[in-house]
Amino acid sequence: MPSPNVYVSRVQDDIERANGVVDPARHDAPSGEWKPTWTVVPLRAFRGREFRVIEVQSTWDDEQLLIAIKGAYKGLRLWYHRWFSLKGLSYVSDRLPSQVNDAWVFPQRVGPGRTTPHRNQRLRYLLDHPEHMRGKRDFMLALTGASGTASTEYGIEFVERWNMARVCVVVIGSALLSFSIALTYGSLTSDWATGFNIASFFSQTFAQMFVLVGCLEYYEF
Questions:
Q1: Among 82, 72, 9, which Cα is nearest to 44's?
Q2: How would you write 167-213 as a 3-class SS string?
Q3: Residue 25 DSSP code
Q4: How many Å apart are CA 126 and CA 63, to the nearest integer?
Q5: CB 136 within 8 A of CB 66
Q6: pTM of the predicted model, to two decimals?
Q7: Among 125, 145, 167, 200, which has the highest number of CB atoms less than 10 A from its own CB?
Q8: Helices 62-76 and 117-128 sit at what angle, rounded to 10 degrees?
């Protein structure tokens, strides 16, 4: 079996090729012939500790695989995450060591911690528009093993980031709430100075909460 570094390098090349970022002068084009020796490959998709197993069929193309990956991500985000979480999908990491051993509680990344923004944007676009990869099997090769040989050693991980639209809604909503408190108190008591002092207290409290949440982003748990 190849060493992890060699395997990860090969997988990264496959995924880069699937994203259309590999220099054709340095890499051979993916084979158009698809003859896998397997029927079903279980692919584990992680979101933190939680995971779902995607039963990848040998008859799939990249469009069907991307639809299954997007469905797994939606399934891992429970209803309260989908409605109230301030984060959304950033990228899908290259691969992770197999979690067949239950002693491994959290997935361990073996590739780079981050990828370039244009690759993240391309992958998010393909997950939202899987029809762009209809009839192709570049991702199938990258995620199920090269040359049609099934590989269950690795999986994928959904890495999330702050969703700016949702963050803006919360920040603007907090500011409007503070302003409405000032208007309500002032109109009821005619004491506008006290009303805006109360609103200032709430604004400072919200700001401290946002700063704390932002600091937690850089804290390793």
A1: 72
A2: HHHHHHHHHHHHHHHHHHHHHHHCCHHHHHHHHHHHHHHHHHHHHHH
A3: T
A4: 9
A5: no
A6: 0.68
A7: 145
A8: 100
Side chain identity, residue 49: R
Q: Can you tell me the distance from the alpha carbon of 48 to that of 32, in angstroms, rounded to the nearest whole number?
A: 35
CB 94 within 8 A of CB 19: no
Report how far apart, in Å, the C-alpha atoms of 80 and of each of 12, 48, 75, 216 are: 34, 16, 12, 21
Residue type (1 letter), 23: D
- Altogether, the residues listed in the chain come to a count of 221
In degrees and rounded to multiples of 5, residue 12 shows phi and psi of -60, -40
Digitized pLDDT (tens) for each residue of the chain, 221 residues in all: 444 444 444 445 545 555 544 443 333 444 457 778 888 888 888 887 788 888 999 899 999 999 999 999 999 888 778 788 888 888 777 665 555 455 556 666 665 556 667 778 888 899 999 999 998 988 888 887 654 555 666 688 888 888 888 888 988 999 999 999 999 999 999 899 999 999 999 999 988 888 887 777 666 55
